[in-house]
Specification:
Three copies of one chain form a homotrimer. Chain A has 468 residues and is of the alpha/beta class. Chain A has helices at residues 14-27, 41-46, 53-57, 62-70, 92-101, 110-122, 134-145, 152-158, 175-182, 196-199, 206-217, 224-240, 260-271, 277-298, 314-320, 339-345, 361-371, 389-403, 420-441, 447-465; strands at 32-34, 161-165, 168-169, 189-190, 193-194, 245-248, 301-304, 308-309, 328-329, 353-355, 377-379. Helix content of chain A is 50%, strand content 7%. In chain A, the strands form four sheets. In chain A, strands 6-7-10-11 form a four-stranded parallel beta sheet, covered by helices on one side. In chain A, strands 1-2-4 form a three-stranded parallel beta sheet. In chain A, strands 3-5 form a two-stranded parallel ribbon. The first copy, chain A, is globular, with a radius of gyration of 22 Å. At the A-B interface, helix 16, helix 17, helix 18, helix 19 and helix 20 of A face helix 4, helix 6, helix 15, strand 9 and helix 18 of B. Chains A, B, C: This is Uronate isomerase.
Chain lengths: 468, 468, 468
Amino acid sequence: MPQLDTDRLLPLDDRSRGIARDLYTSISNLPIISPHGHTEPAWFANNTPFANAAELFVVPDHYVFRMLVSQGIELDSLGVPRADGTTVEQDPRAIWALFAKNYHLFRGTPSQLWLDHSFEHVFGIREELSAETADDYYTHITNSLATPDFLPRALFDRFNIEALATTESALDELKWHKQLGDSDWQGRIITTYRPDAVVDPEFADFANNVAQLGSLTGCDTQTFSGYLQAHRLRRQFFKTMGATATDHGHASARTEDFPPEQASKLFEKALAGQCSAEEADAFRGHMLTEMARMSLDDGLIMQIHPGSARSHNHGVAATHGRDKGFDIPTRTEYVHALQPLLNAVGMEKSLTIIVFTLDETAFSRELAPLAGVYPALKLGPPWWFFDSYEGMRRFRETTTETCGFYNTAGFNDDTRAFCSIPARHDVARRVDCAYLATLVTTGRLREKDAIELAFELTYGLVKKAYRL
Amino acid sequence: MPQLDTDRLLPLDDRSRGIARDLYTSISNLPIISPHGHTEPAWFANNTPFANAAELFVVPDHYVFRMLVSQGIELDSLGVPRADGTTVEQDPRAIWALFAKNYHLFRGTPSQLWLDHSFEHVFGIREELSAETADDYYTHITNSLATPDFLPRALFDRFNIEALATTESALDELKWHKQLGDSDWQGRIITTYRPDAVVDPEFADFANNVAQLGSLTGCDTQTFSGYLQAHRLRRQFFKTMGATATDHGHASARTEDFPPEQASKLFEKALAGQCSAEEADAFRGHMLTEMARMSLDDGLIMQIHPGSARSHNHGVAATHGRDKGFDIPTRTEYVHALQPLLNAVGMEKSLTIIVFTLDETAFSRELAPLAGVYPALKLGPPWWFFDSYEGMRRFRETTTETCGFYNTAGFNDDTRAFCSIPARHDVARRVDCAYLATLVTTGRLREKDAIELAFELTYGLVKKAYRL
Amino acid sequence: MPQLDTDRLLPLDDRSRGIARDLYTSISNLPIISPHGHTEPAWFANNTPFANAAELFVVPDHYVFRMLVSQGIELDSLGVPRADGTTVEQDPRAIWALFAKNYHLFRGTPSQLWLDHSFEHVFGIREELSAETADDYYTHITNSLATPDFLPRALFDRFNIEALATTESALDELKWHKQLGDSDWQGRIITTYRPDAVVDPEFADFANNVAQLGSLTGCDTQTFSGYLQAHRLRRQFFKTMGATATDHGHASARTEDFPPEQASKLFEKALAGQCSAEEADAFRGHMLTEMARMSLDDGLIMQIHPGSARSHNHGVAATHGRDKGFDIPTRTEYVHALQPLLNAVGMEKSLTIIVFTLDETAFSRELAPLAGVYPALKLGPPWWFFDSYEGMRRFRETTTETCGFYNTAGFNDDTRAFCSIPARHDVARRVDCAYLATLVTTGRLREKDAIELAFELTYGLVKKAYRL
C-alpha cells in the first residue's frame, strides 16, 4: 500500500481539486532548481556512498532530532556529535530504532511528509515506519546506499536537479567545487558567498578571519578600503565557482548606510575587538549596504535571512555546539530596518535582494508592501519552520494580494537533508497549485493564467531571480 | 465571454455556496454608503468628463503604479506628475499601453478584481485587457468618458450611491461642497474634517496653518483655548457641508490626556517650532483626546487611521512627492496607546470612535477585545492593503468571536479611484456573505440571523455608525 | 427544533466531514478532565442550589457582560456588584430580560455556542432565546435549579467530569476542599497553587501577605530562605488537597535567574515596599524560576499565563473592581523572556511547564519552536478570547507543524461558568476532530493515527501533562 496519497495537499472540493491536479500534472516533472541550501559539495565531488540510514536521516537533521529532544531523548543517544568530537551512541542501528519507535511524534509535521516521501520514492518502501518495521527499514536503506544507484551523483540525477547551490564561508577554498568543475560529471553544483565570519565583529576570531581574507586576496584588510576590495575579489572567486548569490544571516534586519569615514572607524574598532554590541550591530548593518553596492557591480543577487536567536540553550551550545535545534525565531522588524539599504539602492532595477522571514506577521504588514513597490526587493519563500503546507499557504494568502506573484522568487529548500529535496519541492508545487486552483474557483484568477503561473512559481521565477 | 465569475468569492462547498448566493442576492442591490474616501468633490460639482482611460485608471491609482514600479517601470513613464509639476510621459495612450502590457502583474490581486469589474460593469468590455487589446480598450473607454452617461454625476447615480464622503483639510474652504449644495443635483456628497495640518506640529507650515485657522474662524489661535475654539467653529462649518465625521491619520495610535496647562505649553512650543519629536508626538496624541471631547459635544464621529510609515523612499519623495505608493504599514500598538483616550471618554455611549489598522495582528489581540467592551469604540473595516478577499476574511475570522458583528462599522472604500467604488463594495458584500454562510453551515449561526446580518453588514451598521 | 446542528464545527466537504464525525463519535463520550479553571469549590462542598438564571449565566460571566457593556448597557443594570458591595439592579428577572433582548449581540461568538449548548443540553430548552422567550426561559431555568437534578454535585456527575481543578491563593485555607475530602461524595475537585499575592511586590498588601504566609507555615518569611521554605511547605499543603499544578499570571513572560544574594536583596526591598517597577518585575521573573525549581522537587506542574493588561479602564476598576471585562491582551515576547528559566531548568525531563498566550502571533514564531525542542515545555490550549472555533483552528494550524501534537497539553476550559464546561470541551473536541480529519483528507495523516490522536487530544495528553 502506498504511503502517500497521490492527491495530497490538494484542495478538498471537487472542482478545485480537479483544477489543482491538472496544474500539478503540468509542472510536476519540471527539473528542480535549488538555489539555496546546505548540502555538502564533497558528497558530489567524491561521490562516495552515504554511510547508513541513521547517518542519512537522523544524525544531521535538526528537524528530526529537535523533536526527539523535546520529548526527553538525549542528543547523545541520537549520535549527534559533541562539540569535543565525542559521540556517546555509536551504533547507527540503535539510533535508527530509537527514531523509529518515536516516529509518532512527527504526525502532522512536514518532517513526516518529507520522510515518508523519501522512504517511498527514493527507497521504494511501502510499509510504514514503526518500532516493528525499524530493523527492516534500516537494513533496506543501508544496503541500498551501498549500491551505485544511490551514490550522491546518481541520486542528484534521479532527483532531476538542474542546479543546486551550496553555501560556503567567504574563507572557504572551494576545493570541492573546483574538483567538481574539473570532473567530467555534468551536475551543476554552485557555491554561494556567505561572509558572516568576516562581516560580523562578534563572530569567533573576527580579526583573524579578516586577516585571512587578506591573505587569500592579497589585499590589505587592515584598512577599510582594502577590506572592501578583498570582498570584491573574493566574490569574483566565488563567481568562478558558479556563485550567483550571496547570503547573509544576521540576528535582525538592521541595515545602515554610514559615510565612509564612520564605517571605516567602526571597522577599526571591530578589528581591535573594541566594538560595543550596538557598534557591532551597526557595522553588520552597514556591511549589508556595502554588499548590495558590490552586487550592483558584480551582479550577485543578495539574500537576507534575519530573525533567528541562535543557540537559545547555553548548556546544549556548550556540549553540542551550534545548529542543534535551539535556534528560535524572534519578532523581526523590516520597515525601518531596511530603510537605509532601500534608500541607498532599493530603486535599482538591476539589483535583486531576496528577503526571508521567520516572523510571519511581517508578510502582510511589511514585506509584501515593500516588495510591492521597490524594484530591487523580492520575497523569498517561507523559510525553515514555515517550509510546510500551512506556512506556504499563509505565505501566499498574506503576500499575493499586495505584491502579486511576480515579486516572489520561487521555492528553495534550504536543506542539508539531501533526500528531502524532491519531497520539499513537491510540497511547494502542490501547495502552490492548490492555491492557484482556489483562486480560479473563487473567481480571482483565470484558469489559463493559473497554468502560466504554475510554471512561473515552480521554475520561471526562481531561475530569473537567482540568474540561473 | 464575461470577465467575472458570477459566483466569485463565494464558498466552495455546495451548501455554503448556495446559502451565500441567497444572502448576496438579498443585499446586492442595496445602495452604496461610502462614508470615507478620497474622491474629488470638484468632479461632481463641475460634472466635466474624465479625460481618458489612463487618467482614470492608472495615473491617480497608487495601487496600480506601485505594482508597476516594483517591476522596474518608472513613475515618469506612467505619467505620474513630479513634485515640480513636470510630467515626462504626456501621451495617455502610451501610458495605457504600458499598463496593459504589464497587466499580468496584477494576477491574484484585488486591483485586478476591481479593474476587471470596472471594465465589464462600467464600460461593458467583455474581452480581457492585454497588450493586444490595449488600444481598443483605450479608445472604447476614452470615447465613453466623453458621453453624458459617463459624466461623474451620471456614474454616481448609476453606481447607486446613497451618500459619499470626501475628505478635506480643516483649512479647506469647501467651495465644491458649497457649489454642490447650491446645485439642483440630488447626489449626497459630504465632507469630512481632517485636521492633520493644524494638529501635527511636524506638518509643513504648522504655525502658518494655525494662523490661517485663526483667520478662517476669527479666533485667536495663538492661545490654546482660542485654538480649541477655532476647531470647534471649523467643525461646525464642516457640519454645514454635511460632515458627520472627522478623520485622523497619525503615525501611531498614541493618545494622551494632559492637564490643560501642560497641553497649552506643548502648543506654545509647537507654534514656536520648538517641539522635539517626542513632544510633537505627545501633542498629536493629546489632540486626539481633545477632538474626542469635541465629538461628544457636536456629534461628529471620530476616525483614527494609524500605522503607516509615509514616504519610505526619500528619493521618490523628493522627485514625486507624497502618496506615491511608498507608504508602508508598521507594527502598531493599541492597548496602551489608546488608554488615555479611552479612560477619558471610552465609556461614553453617545460617542463613536472608529479605529482602523494596517497591522492585522492587532485585530484578535487588541482591537476586538477593546471594541468588545468599550461603548465608544467600533472597528473600522480592513483598510488599504487589507481591502481584499483575504484581508476581509481574516478580519471577520479574527474579530467576530470576540466583539461580534455589532461592534463593527460596515464597509468603506477609502478610495480616490471612483470607478472602483462599486467593485470594492461588491467584494465586501460577497466576502461577508461567504463568511456568514460558512458560519451557518458549521452550525455557528442560524440562517435567519445570517439574513439579518447580511443587511446590517452592508447597510445598517455603516449608516448607524456614521450617523448617515 | 434543536438549537444546535449535530454536525456543528465539522469540515464542509463530505469526505472530511464523514471522517471528522467518526473521530468525534469515538471520543465524544470520554470523561471531561478540567485541569485549570475558576469554579467555586464551595458549590460542591455545600451542594446548595444555584440561585436563578441571571445569577447562573449573566452576573458572573465576563464574556457576557462585557459584550453588553460594549453596546452601552450598564454593569449596574446587569446586577454586577460594585466594589463597595452595592448592586443597583436587584431583580434577576429584569437582568435576564435585558440580556435576552440583546442576545443578538452574541451572534457568531463562542458565548452563543456555549449558552445555546447549555440551554439545550443542560436545561432541555429547544426554543431560541429572545425578548419573546425571555420570561419562559427565566422561569424554566430558575425552577430547574431548585430541583435535585440541578444541584452542583448532580450536574458535576451529569457532565461526566473525571477531575476538576479550582484555583486558590497561596494564602487560602482550602476549607472547601477539606470539607469535600471529608465528605462521602466521590467527585474529584482539586486545588491549584496560585501564589500571585505573595510573589508580586506590586500586589495589594504584599508585605502583609508574606507575613501571613509565615504564620500559615511557621517559617520566618522575613528572610528569603524562610520565604522560599514557606512556599515549599504551602505547596505541600496544596498537594494534600489534590493539587498537581501551580499557576502564574504575570503581565509579561519575563523570567530571571539571579544569584541568591541578588534575589535576596530584591526580596528585602519588596518587603520594605521599596521596589521600583522594574525591580518588582525582576523579582516576579526570578520567582518563576524558583517555582520551577520547587516543581522539580515536588512534582507540581507549572502553568504560566502572561500577557493581559488588567483593568484597562480606571473608572470601571474604581466602581466595580477587578475582572470586569476590561482585561486586554497585549503583545507578548517569549524567546528572550523565558530564556533564563529555560536555561536553568528547560532540559529537565521530569519537569512540565505549560505556557499560554493571548498573543497568537507567538504560536508559530516563538512558542511552537520552543516547545518543539525543550523537554520541560508544553503548549497550553488557546486561552480566553481564543477558546473558540477560530482560535483553536489557528492554534493547531500554527503549532502542529513545528512541535507536533505531543508537545501540547490537551484542552482546559479556564472558566467560572460551570454550565459552560461541557459546551467548551465539546467545542474543543469537535475542532480537533475537524482538524485531524482535514489532515487525513489532505494526505498529511493516516486515518488510524487520527483515531489515536483524537483520544490523545481529548483525554490522554491532558492527564499526562497534569499528572491526573
